[in-house]
Known about the structure:
CATH class of the largest domain: Alpha Beta
Largest sheet: 7 strands, mixed
Strand content: 25-35%
Bound molecules: coenzyme A
Shape: globular
Amino acid sequence: MMMRNIVVREFDPNKDCLGVEDVERRCEVGPSGKLCLFTDLLGDPICRVRHSPAFLMLVAEVGDEIVGMIRGCIKTVTCGKRISRNTKYTTNDIEPPKPLPVYTKLAYILGLRVSPSHRRMGIGLKLVKRMEEWFRESGVEYSYIATENDNYASVKLFTDKCGYSKFRTPSILVNPVFAHRLIVPKQVTIIQLNPSDAEAFYRRKFSTTEFFPRDIDSVLNNKLNLGTFLAVPRGTYSPDSWAGSDSFFSCPPESWAILSVWNSKDVFKLEVRGASRVKRTLAKTTRVVDRVLPWLRIPSVPEVFSPFGLHFLYGLGGEGPRAAKLVKALCGHAHNLAKERGCGVVATEVSSREPLKLGIPHWKMLSCDEDLWCIKRLGEDYSDGSLGDWTKSPPGLSIFVDPREF
Ligand SMILES: CC(C)(COP(=O)(O)OP(=O)(O)OC[C@H]1O[C@@H](n2cnc3c(N)ncnc32)[C@H](O)[C@@H]1OP(=O)(O)O)[C@@H](O)C(=O)NCCC(=O)NCCS
C-alpha cells in the first residue's frame, strides 16, 4: 500500500523532539518475553550524528503526526591505498615505499525508524531516497549502513530496494564493568598521549586502514574523547622519557599497542528491558557480592536493567609478538577508567578478521559477532581512479571504526 500524504522534511529541534521520541519508543518494543535493548538519546535526537563534519536528520509526517525518521552523516575516509608515484624503490633501499591512503567521501545512514502502525507503506524507502539525494548533492561517492544480520526488514529494504550490497561484518565486543578493578600487569607500561601526538601516531600507522577518518584530529580533540593510551613492555619507554611519536618510531620496542577511549555515556544511555524478575535478582546478587567481596573477583553482571552508559574503545591496534597481551592490558586500564566514571559496559567494534581480537576481553552474551555493513556506490567520478570500486574490494585485516558513529 502506498500512502500519498506523507511529507518528508528536515527535523526541527524546536517542535519535533517529542514526536520523534514517541516513534523511538514504539520501535523499541521487542517481542513479549524477549529481552530488548532500549536506547535513551537523552533528549537529543541528533546526538548520534552531531559530531560528524556534516549531518542531516529527516522526519516523515502524516498529517500532524511524526511516523518515521532517518539520520545521515558525511565525512572523508580511507577506502584503499596506493604507492606514491614519487617514491623510487630500488632493491638497495632498506625500507619499502610507504603506501598512501586513498580517500573518498562516505555517507552513513543510521537511526532509520518507522512507527509500527505505519510500516510497509513505503515510508522507510522514501526516507532513504531523500537522504541519498542530500548525499548526492554533497558529492558523496559511497553510502553505507550497519544493521543486525537478522533484521530481515532492514536488510531487505537496503539490499532489495535500494541497491546496497553486503560489505563487511565486523564484531561488536562488549565487556561488563565489574565492581572490582582489573589488574594491569606490572610488565606493561601505559603512556597517555596528548591529542596531537595521538594524531601523528594514528596518521602514521592507521591512515591506510579502511574507514580511517581524514579528520582524525577533530575526533581526538573532541571533548568526548577521554584519551589515547599506548602500552609498551616495561623498561622500553615511560611517561617521563616520552619524547613524542616521531622519536618513538625512530626506535620502537618490539611490541606495542594503542587504543583510545570515547565517552558515549554522555551521548546516549542503554537499558535492557523485558528481563524476568529472577534474572534481575540474580544479576543484582552477583553485583552485591562483587562489591562487598571484591577480592573474589566474581564476574558480576552489570546493572543493565536500569539505564547505563558506556565507553567505546576505538583506534585499537598494535604490532609485535606481544601486541595482543598489550591490548589486553589496555582494555584493563580502560575498564578501570569506565568503572571510575560509572559506566555499565565497555564496547568496541573491530574487523571480523582483526588479529588483536584475541586480546580484547568480552562477554559473548553481550557481544554481536557479525554486525552487517551494507554499502552502495552513489557516484563514480570522485575518488582516485587507481582504486576502482571499493564495494567490490576484499576486506583488510582491520577497519577503523569511528566513535562518532557508534
Ligand atoms: C526497517 C524499517 C525502517 C522499514 O520501514 P518501512 O516503512 O516499513 O519500509 P517500506 O514500507 O518502505 O518497505 C520498503 C521495502 O523494504 C522491504 N521490507 C520492509 N519491511 C519488511 C518486512 N517486515 N519484511 C520483509 N521485507 C520488508 C520490502 O522490500 C519493502 O518493499 P515492499 O513493501 O514493496 O515489499 C521498519 O521496519 C523499522 O522501523 N524497523 C525497526 C527499526 C529498524 O530496524 N531500523 C533499521 C535499522 S538500520
